[in-house]
Give the backbone structure.
Amino acid sequence: MYNYAEISIRRADLGETSIVRSIVQEAYGGVKKQLGGDPAVLQEGLDKISRYIQMGNVYVALIGDAIVGTMRVQLQGQVGTISRVAVREKFRNRRIGTFLVEYGENLLTHMGAKCVQLEVSGTTDTQTKFYEGIGYKQMKRVRHAGEDIILLQKDLFEVPESEDEEDL
């Protein structure tokens, strides 16, 4: 577990699949309104979410016994991915999303990731500003399944600036 005062983060259990789905649906409902249709995140069924939970890729944030947030963390090669970050509306603005992302970054660092990538809907400046505020940089914009997607990235290790070598 990862504790920040009253917040703890742990892997999701299979019995929490429907809770994870409801949090994601609540959090991404605004994107649906802006797009005029369901974004890919809202089209995931319980079976797909269950598979990710079984693989150990889904984490939940708790206050006491209440699940208030969720995210998915994966590693491909040396590139980590954090996705489906979602917090229940009545628990927002308490740094829970930030704690989830920091926890995911820490996990990925220990798994050998050199950087973390995430995608946000191009229609929501709020999400983009949130991630830029915690060190992510926009890499590119793409159109996928009718959605504008912004790819953001954060290096997990600082690259030292090269020093000019002087000839002796």
Remarks:
- The mean pLDDT is 85.
- The longest strand covers residues 66-76.
- DSSP finds five helices and eight strands in the chain.
- The first helix runs from residue 17 to 27.
